[in-house]
Amino acid sequence: MTEPLLEMNNIWVKFTPSKRPEVVAVEDASISVRENEFVSLIGPSGCGKSTLLRAAAGLEIPSSGEITVDGQPVDGPGADRGMVFQAYTLFPWLTVSENIRFALKKTSLTSAEKDDRVREYIRLIGLEGFENSYPNQLSGGMRQRVAIARALVYRPKILLMDEPFGALDAQTRLLMQELLLQVWENHRSTVLFVTHDVEEAILLSDRILVMTALPGKIKAEIMIDLPRPRSIIEMETSSQFAAYKKQLLELVREEARKSFSRIPDKREA
Ligand SMILES: Nc1ncnc2c1ncn2[C@@H]1O[C@H](COP(=O)(O)OP(=O)(O)OP(=O)(O)O)[C@@H](O)[C@H]1O
Ligand SMILES: [Mg+2]
Q: Whose CA is nearest to atom 11 of ligand 1?
């Protein structure tokens, strides 16, 4: 068993919007992600998933609790953590190559090494031929592939992904899930992944953490003991996959219902 790479201990995040009551977004959540592990965080909308991920990224300072990456305390954003958000966050004035190369700015690689690395990742995401295109000349899925390459190219210790495929159509989403699966299975980076899509979480993860409705706590931890390499087609027909899906849907639905407590459950009526 490898050492935890990311440790979040007893994290509380409170927001105090002006003239409105305090919101406790995350309540006493503890997470640890080991090196080379793919962990997903799922839970109902508004339960604090993004807040927790932003705290790991150093973009949100917890009200209490401690966060370390490789034993070093996190007190702000850092190059040891790569971030991919739901919205495409490319620089519109830079080409595909330039966007990816930008992430290597602070590394000690030589210019030739940077060129090689950029080429390697463009190949990996299947965008050869689009090196000199600008983001507005690409589809949503292509842009998100560039965002993923940009987060991977400098080989951060951990990748933090917040619903990176949330804005894509179902077909592109499947392709992107397969791509991430492939890249991860070949390169074995460490990932903390936020999604509300239960199937996506099972397909990709070694372990899934289920959060409660607001204030978000970690409610359950499910180990996904499915063989790798995995494929979407195989998963669709696997009875083990179906069993995980049922178990997780029940856990999430129970929480979602709490956040919509005025909607009566038909089965209970
Ligand atoms: N900057 C902020 N100021 C005040 N409240 C905030 C702020 N950011 C988040 N919140 C509140 O914290 C709670 C958790 O938000 P968060 O974005 O982490 O949820 P989420 O689980 O990512 O939801 P979704 O699945 O819809 O993305 C919400 O109630 C939200 O309104
Ligand atoms: Mg969110």
A: 25
pLDDT in tens, 184-239: 888 888 999 999 899 999 999 999 999 999 888 999 999 999 999 999 888 889 99
Amino acid 85 reads: F
User: Can you tell me whether residue 64 is helix, strand or coil?
Assistant: strand
Show me where the domains of the chain are located. Answer: 4-80+158-262, 88-155
Residue 107: C-alpha distances to residues 25, 82, 113, 139, 199 (Å): 35, 14, 10, 29, 36
Is 4-80+158-262 a domain of CATH 3.40.50.300?
A: yes
Pairwise CA distance, residues 40 & 205, whole Å? 6
Q: How far is the CA of 13 from the centre of ligand 1 (A)?
A: 10
CA of 218 to the centre of ligand 2 (A): 15
Give pLDDT tens digits for 114-131. 999 999 999 988 899 999
| Ligand showing the shortest atom-to-Cα distance for residue 41 | 1
Instruction: Indicate if ligand 1 lies below 6 Å from the C-beta of 213.
Output: no
Q: Name the closest-CA residue to atom 29, ligand 1.
A: 46
Whose atoms come closest to the Cα of 46: which ligand? 1
